[in-house]
Amino acid sequence: MTPDLEGVGLGSALAALLVAAAALGLAVLPAAIALHVLTLPAGWVGAVLGSLGAALFGVKLFAMGWAMGTRLSRHPRAGAAVACAD
Question: Which H, E and C letters describe the chain, residue by residue?
Answer without folding.
Answer: CCCCCCCCCHHHHHHHHHHHHHHHHHHHHHHHHHCCCCCCCHHHHHHHHHHHHHHHHHHHHHHHHHHHHHHHHCCCCCCCCCCCCC
